[in-house]
Amino acid sequence: MGRTRAFDRDAALERALEEFWRNGYEATSIAGLTAVMGINPPSLYAAFGDKKSLFGEAVRRYQETHGAFSARALSEEPTAGRAVERLLREAARIYTDPAHPPGCLIIFAGVNTTDAGVAAGLRDHREAGRRQILRRIEEDVEAGLLPADTDAHGLATFYAAALQGMSAQARDGATRDDLDAVATLALRAWP
What's the predicted TM-score (pTM) here? Predict the structure, then answer.
């Protein structure tokens, strides 16, 4: 008969998520994870598998919680322009929220990783976000809400790059006001 877990799995996962967010995948050690999660290595492996599996679960949790604002903005707003504005404004707020590490886990966690699978997985998530922006822009072009000659691909890539830059700025200490100013300037590029 197996032993009952002596820890809250969801709380431990949230602490692991924040450790990966704070340090990135490569710099996060099993020792660091077990320390912040309040568990020992055998418990970590039994509950989550290896470090890579735990990271995958942390990324999914991030997308369902802290990072869910982007999918909501892109699906709930009536136009691509309003969706992109909301996306940038919410990024400014969330990337600088002192309740958790700054910036975006999906943008930062793969920096300097030597694990090609981790890097590719995060790149795929970022590309999926850019494609969501692209779809919204293309829908508005088709609906006549944006000029027919709008460079949808270029515009989507520009706003994805703006979000990535805002994340980097937040990690470097930019304030919400700083990032709101970036959003304001970036929105001037909207056709």
Answer: 0.91
